[in-house]
Amino acid sequence: MRLKKLPAVFFATGRGNRPVREWLYSLDEKDRRKIGVDIATAEFAWPVGMPLCRAMGDGLWEIRSTISGGRIARVIFAVVDEQMVLLHGFVKKTRKTPQPELALALRRKKEIAA
After folding, report:
1. C-alpha to C-alpha distance for 59 and 30, rounded to whole angstroms
2. What is the per-residue pLDDT across 65-102, written as a single tens digit (0 to 9) for each?
3. Which of 10, 36, 58, 77 is 20 to 30 A from 18, alpha carbon to alpha carbon?
4. Strand positions, DSSP E, 26-99
């Protein structure tokens, strides 16, 4: 049995909501499975570089998934206490990661540290 090098956990808001988990459940099963496999790959093989993971700066990383219809999904995470904290997930519509998406993930990361 292989152990996860960097186990993933969902970021939880003060009210107990888990935004990434909720976002994943909003996707169809095939897309959820693809993103889940990519997260699991990072958990077991950490550290992982391109094309699966990329550093985004400020302690943020992204998991890069291609889902149905040629769409591109991203899960932004931070490494906190030897865990991969899944902060934000979204489907990219532009080539560059939109600043509001990064800002939201960074706000959530700061909530953990508080």
Report:
1. 30
2. 999 999 999 999 999 999 999 999 999 998 899 999 99
3. 58
4. 53-57, 60-66, 72-80, 83-92
Torsion of CA 12, 18, 21, 26, to 10 degrees: -160
d(C-alpha 106, C-alpha 99), whole Å: 10
> Given the structure tokens 């769409």, which residue do they identify?
71
Strand partners, 92: 72
The burial class, CB within 10 Å (0-12 / 13-18 / 19+), for 87 is buried
d(CA 82, CA 13): 20
The pTM (predicted TM-score) of the whole model is 0.95
Sign of the dihedral through C-alpha 110, 76, 50, 57: negative
Q: How far apart are CA 78 and CA 113, in angstroms?
A: 11
